[in-house]
Structure formats: C-alpha cells, structure tokens
Amino acid sequence: FSSVTSVLNMSVFQDQFVLEDLIEEVKKKSTALSFGPLQPNGHIYVEGSFPAIKLLRDFLLLKAKSLSEEDKREESKSHQRPWRREKQHSLPSEDADGEKQIVVLDTDVYRYMKSFFPSTFQVNDDVVISDTTDGDTTTVYLERAGGRPDAGQVLRVKEQIESQSVKLYSALRKERINIGKHTRGAEERYKMLCGHLQSHYPHLLVIPYDTHIDVIGKSSEILELKE
C-alpha cells in the first residue's frame, strides 16, 4: 500500500504532557506523515506510508518506555531528591532542572552506535552516562556532573543521541547466521568466520554467540553479505 491511515490514542500521555505540545514534537520527527486535528478524546488521525507509521509507533513506544523507566527510578531512589515531572514538559524523561535524562534505545541500534559512533557517548566531564540493557531495549541514563554549571548540556547530549538513533533505526538491519552448537574442533573455524566477516565487512557489526552470529548494518551491506 502506498498510503495507510491510522488512529493514534494519545490520551495515554495526557497525565504527563500537554498533548498539543507532544503532537508538535511528533510532527517534527515524522515529517513524512499527515496529521489530522487532535480530538477531545485524545485521538488523532495519521496518514502516510506504512514504514513511516511504524517508525512513529516505535517512537511513541519508546516514549512510553522512557516514562516507565523514570517511574521505576523514582521509586528506587525515593530517599534521594525526587525527579519532578510537570505536565508542561514535552519530554517524558527529564527532571525539572534538566539535570537527568533518559533515552530508551533499541539494543541493536545502541550497540551499533557504540561501535561506529562512539563520540556520541564520549562527552566531556559535564555529563555522566550509564546504561542498562533489558533484552531488546537499552536504557541510557544521562546526569549532570555535580557542581557543573551547564544543565543544558545534558539535554543537548540526549538530543544528539536521539537524533543519531532515529537515523540508524530506519537504516539498519540485522541478519542472524545460525551455526549450531560448535564442537571444540569447529571452534577455530568459528573464529575464522567471525574474523572474515569483520575484515571483509568493516562497516558491519559482528556479534558472536554460542549458537549463532548476529550481523548488524545498513540494508545494502547486509544484502551484499547474503550474496
């Protein structure tokens, strides 16, 4: 289908955000889509290509995941200064002072970014970055270093990570090479295969496991590998 229409229920975000502001943020990130007016019940019609709508859906799921992760951190750190979340904030993963931010990424995209765009996470001493991985999602925590004056630096790093991840999310593809449980005699051939992939396809991320190899990269490079 060249174009499909979907109805988004944005009311699930209304307790945390001003929906009109959130819709404007979504429109900026999804320029290939057409949006209808926001209905009183929180529904909004969206029209565009299926891949573009799928990207929008995934973006909103990450937003919801970010909110859930923030709630968990608030509960686990109740003895510390709580993060204040006010309704007028357009971002679900920031505290009132902009000192802490959360970015939820697809784990494959995160690993690719760490390998091929390491500077995205190598910022100066103004920002402390940590991460936790839970299956298909990796949560990146950004926090302003104590005593540093520029709270806006944390937000700028967050936006840089989000911008890079959005570009990669639509460009990357993962191919799984099943090899079965290799015996001791086949271990050397397994290492040679991994080395061959890494040397002949330097722009692909090769992740070896006991029973398979995951290869992550741009679609054109994955197709070249399969051929």
Automatic annotation (TrEMBL):
Q: Mark out the compositionally biased spans (Basic and acidic residues).
A: 71-89
| Name under which the protein is recorded | RBM43 protein
Q: Which domain of life is it from?
A: Eukaryota
UniProt feature coiled coil, ranges: none
- Per UniProt, what is the name of the gene that codes for the protein in this document? Rbm43_0
Region annotation Disordered: where it falls in the sequence: 71-97
